[in-house]
Amino acid sequence: MNVNFKDGTWLNQPAGWLAEDASLTMTTDAKTDFWRETHYNFTRDSGHFLGFPATDDFTARIRIQGEFRTLYDQAGLMVRIDEKRWVKTGVEFTDGELFLSTVITDGKSDWSVSQPFKELEDFHIRVTLAGGAMRIQASRDGKFWPLLRLAPFPVAASYAVGPTACTPERSGLAVHFSEFSIGPAITTDLHDLS
Question: Which end of the chain lies in a sparser environment, N or C, as judged by fewer CB atoms within 10 Å?
Fold first, then answer.
């Protein structure tokens, strides 16, 4: 089911944003981020997130477009229970390159990066949550979906799901989101990348 971007609820609404029925453009504020404790010994819950309600057993997907150039520039999809239990997955600029990045947080954050493809200024993210397991996939074209991560994630009565963007080292990153949908969890085999 396609989601109307005008129906979301902001956590840390950016100063600059425009929601239309089928698209969202946001421009990040300064020093925004989501992170809890691990390695850096700080907690940040200041990133921008436009959330939509979901219950267990769902698949959400979104298209992300932007010019990511500064260390830790990031944008993607977030699944959130509360400030201590959330996932953000999408693109992140680190070590001079764009990577697909996933941070899973259950009390503390863990971070993984991969590069199944490098064309990361226009790509898709898909998250499936079912029975305490989260499958995270990315795609260049919305048709072929390499696996980024399979991980446990807490079962909850409800979740907030939607676009997120952060710029820990600057402000002014403009990100365009479109083709956002939330529906029943896909049931394809884990190795079926369609």
Answer: N
DSSP H or E run through 91: strand 85-94
Domains along the chain?
Answer: 5-184 (2.60.120.200)
The span from the CA of 91 to the CA of 138, in Å, is: 10
The model's pTM: 0.97
How far from the centroid of its chain's Cα atoms is residue 135's Cα?
13
Closest CA to 111 of 166, 58, 52: 166
Q: Is 29 helix (H, G, I), strand (E, B) or coil?
A: coil
Q: 19, 9 in Cβ contact below 8 A?
A: no
Which contiguous run of DSSP H or E holds residue 181? Answer: strand 174-184
64-101: pLDDT as tens digits:
999 999 999 999 999 999 999 999 999 999 999 999 99
Q: The tokens 């884990």 sit on which residue?
A: 190
Q: What is the DSSP letter of 131?
A: T
Neighbouring-strand partners of residue 181: 2, 61
Q: How far apart are CA 62 and CA 174, in angstroms?
A: 16
> How many Å is the Cα radius of gyration of the chain?
15
Q: What Å distances lie between residue 176 and 38, 52, 71, 130, CA to CA?
A: 30, 17, 19, 28
